[in-house]
Amino acid sequence: MKLYGRSHDRQSLARHAGDLSAAGGVRAVVLDDGSERGIRTLEFRTGGGLSFDVLVDRAMDLGGAEFEGRGFGWRSATGFRHPGLHEYRDDDGLSMMRSFSGLLLTAGLDHTLFGAEVDASQYRYPPRGTAVHALHGRVANLPARLTGYGERWQEDGRCVLWAEGEVRQAAIFGEHLRLTRRIEADLGGSEIRLTDRVRNAGFDPTPHMYLYHVNVGWPFLDEGARYELPPHRTLWRSDSVAEQGVSHTAMPAPLPGFVEQVYEHELEPDAAGLARPRLVNERLGVYFELEFDTVRFPSFFQWLHLREGAYAVGFEPSTHHVQGEAAAREDGSMTFLAPGEEREYTTAFRVGHLD
Q1: Structural domains of the chain, count
Q2: What is the helix, strand, coil percentage profile of the chain, to 5?
């Protein structure tokens, strides 16, 4: 592996430093102030310029992230609020907006997109004939059970930094879904690998919707940055696109009063079924790239939130179209996991220098 301009293996690292943390590693800390107080966090440092935080008590989502000291994980005014402060149906179902920050917010496990009230008769509990959902579901504000983390040397000579945990979304007379999440990054590398498995651990057919809200902020996002998409077909645009006319590829400086612009694109995958949208900042000479499987995530939303004070762009691979759960149930595209059924999602986040 390359570290600080030289090639190293396990033995040469041991000769130079008595502890791997001199090069990189994973450290467990607890945030201790303000609305973030009490959140267990894993700090990853790869030694390849990449550092990022895993918020264990926020579904093991990704919080702050930097490349060579430059931030790319979006930081909003909400901070990484403790899930104990979250009220799911606050603000008429928009309560997620009070805890929305970081590189990755996971949406699901049984609902994504805007709020909805849907049939719940499969759970056979007459007092709860319907389920009421808020924006992007519950999972992002559920703590994980941390099952392990650390550094592991592989047979091929790589040292892999890793963490794994389980998030349980369950209710009596309701869903019982379990998310097992594994996060990996190579020592010396600049890539985050995410492997998620969502399993119906209950005994009733259970709705399943899943979406990654991947958010890139300043300084990677700045005036003149480009949002690059693979060959694609645009299926839907929010009304704000025509009203404001702001480009979805050439990024402006933060704009006063900007209303979010959202697009649904059908991305053309490569031969392996993968798509790789990216944000490019030529002034800094850096890029951010998301790689995802278009079979597991057939829909992709582009989110432009270019308002001053909350400046971000989003990459949103999704299992379902932008019309949401009610429409999916009506047209037959809604996913129901049978008891014991599992879905796996593999995704990569990359940063690097432009050639």
Answers
A1: 1
A2: 15, 45, 45
Helix intervals (H) in 154-256: 239-244
Contact 243, 276 (CB under 8 A): no
C-beta of residue 162 within 8 angstroms of C-beta of residue 152: yes
Could you read off the pLDDT of 34-79 as tens digits, one per residue?
A: 999 999 999 999 999 999 999 999 999 999 999 999 999 999 999 9
Q: Which residues pair with 151 in a beta bridge?
A: 161
- Cα angle 253, 315, 206 (rounded to 5 degrees) comes to 145
Identify whether the C-beta of residue 200 lies closer than 8 Å to the C-beta of residue 343.
no
Per-residue pLDDT tens over the stretch 142-191: 999 999 999 999 999 999 999 999 999 999 999 999 999 999 999 999 99
Residue 208 structural domain:
2-353
Q: What are the angstrom distances between the C-alpha of 229 and each of 118, 211, 234, 280, 301?
A: 34, 18, 11, 11, 11
Please name the residues in contact with 215: beta carbons below 8 A apart, sequence gap of 6 or more.
73, 74, 101, 102, 103, 104, 105, 303, 312, 313, 314, 315
Which tokens belong to 165? 């945990």
